[in-house]
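Thread: zinc ion complex, take 2
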Amino acid sequence: MKSATATINLDLLDPLRTLEKCISKDILPIEAVFHYFNCNGCRQDKVQGWKYRDEIDGQWKFFTIVNRCSDCFNGRQSKEVFSEIQQQRNQRLMDQYWLIDPMLKEAGFKNYQVHNPVQENAKKIVSQFVRSGVKGKFEPENLLIIGSFGSGKSHLATAAARSFKEKGLCTGFLMEEHYISLIHSSYNGGRKKEADILQDLKRFDVLVMDELGSENYKMEESSWVSTRLLHLINARKGKATIYTTNLNTETLPKAIGERAYSRLKVNTKIVDLYSTDYRDNFLQ
Ligand SMILES: [Zn+2]
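Output below.
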């Protein structure tokens, strides 16, 4: 869409002729002078218009078509267009990378079963993480939720992801096996290349990577998987990520590789659902 100023075709040399096109046919300006008005956006006198007198009372009147200068008008318009494109892109990403377990699709903080102080504390940390992220500053940057099957770690991660999504943050959720099989397919004629997948995953405001370290035990190619995980962890640098694992701080480094683990620890708080001692690790 063109701006109003562009479609009117300002005739700077002949303001009278241009004015006649713009104001009522019944009023005939007898004199017109080009005039600059203050812009409603930047407040500078950059809005083009006219000062004119007509035959009715001979008084000077002012006329302008728009209330913003073309810089502010175009700037605002392109910001709106940009934000719309970004929203569409985020929606596409979320449609593609929202692979939560159907069993957990209703998981929230309210229906998280707390049986002991460890779970109570974990719930507190994760909901605090959500509150800080929604306000715009994740504290800490990442969480690593560790616990056995049934400890509720994926439930908490899902609850957090759903809350972020509801609050309008671009949120993705996938299990390690999804990520690894996506990368595999990128080598086997898949639509996206590995770099594209990483680029996608980098874009999320928040990403949950569920069941970290689970693939390495199944595969012969553990160093290949470790490298893929390292790439993902690097791609998520500066962005909030929630990792969950049913391994512990001794077995996880072996499963995902020491390098990936040492990167993972940066700006990451451990939420330990194994421990009976519920003080936190890393960022204490
Ligand atoms: Zn302006």
